[in-house]
Amino acid sequence: MEQSMAWEVQSRWSAAAQAMLSYESLVHAVSGAVGSVTAMTVFYPLDTARLRLQVDEKRKSKSTPKVLMEIMKEEGIFAPYRGWFSVISSLCCSNFVYFYTFNSLKIAWVNREHSSTGKDLILGFVAGVVNVLLTTPLWVVNTRLKLQGAKFRNDEIEMTNYKGILDAFHQIVRDEGFAALWNGTFPSLLLVFNPAIQFMFYEGLKRQLLSGQTELSSKQVFVIGAIAKAIATTVTYPLQTVQSVLRFGHHRLNPERRTFGSLRNVLYLLHQRIRRLGLLGLYKGLEAKLLQTVLTAALMFLVYEKLTAATFTLMRLRPRPSR
After folding, report:
1. Is 150 in contact with 123 (CB distance < 8 Å)?
2. Interval 157-184: pLDDT, tens
3. Per 3-state DSSP, what percentage of the chain is helix, strand, and coil (rounded to 5)?
4. Helix 84-109 vs helix 23-55: angle between axes, to the nearest 10 degrees?
5. Is the pTM of this model over 0.70?
6. d(CA 242, CA 187)
7. Coil/strand/helix, residue 57
8. CA distance 298 to 226
9. Are 54 and 287 in contact (CB under 8 A)?
10. 97 and 135 Cβ atoms separated by less than 8 Å
């Protein structure tokens, strides 16, 4: 009996190791990274508008087109693409880690079993935790670079002066301490439910469609990707707002430069936002976020699926079917 259990444990560890080192996981990771970079580049100005609405509480314009027009008028025509390189670099690394972890765990765990929405949610959650712990410093830096030079309505925001990604890392560590690179980690860990929910709905809808056909059309991939992201974003948006504020880290309500990361500070920022803007203030910028994130996710999944299929065809590998 003990030998049988030991063999089972050894077998599962072996399967996990093979999954982590498999070409299949690498193909999914690269395709996910390329898909996300492509989609974000196309819809990047929408993300700029979303971030301004989240961080600058005193901005009166609430619609995405008006915010973008204000930004271009006051800061230049290319201002909506400010910080593009740092965001794309972070996004590429982040999605590579997420897709690699998700698909490796899926191969190892679901190798001999059928997938389910519950398993997809757990896999998405674990992949999200790994992703947050590894890539949060990149997102802290890119948030600050993206907002650098912006014209804010909120006088509680202090301006920064970074010369690039490496200089931003250096100044943050020097002035605020090493832990500041992980500002916003707590809400980010809570927000791993966002991609987890997204992948749960995406994989579930994908399985339903593939039960009656052999391959998804481009339109179907785009639509189910959009639906999955819309649900996940709406559910978790208030925490995303707090996450953006924490990553920026230059409000005067944080004069001691202490690291905001605990549940107490997250609740404090949520309370302050409700007090200033009302309950609907938690969803300020949701229109811009939904417009940006839904379109970006839909295009990302489309590029991901097509690139994955093309790569497997070229390498003459057979991908594991969604079951």
Report:
1. no
2. 566 777 878 888 888 888 888 888 887 7
3. 75, 0, 25
4. 140
5. yes
6. 7
7. coil
8. 5
9. no
10. yes
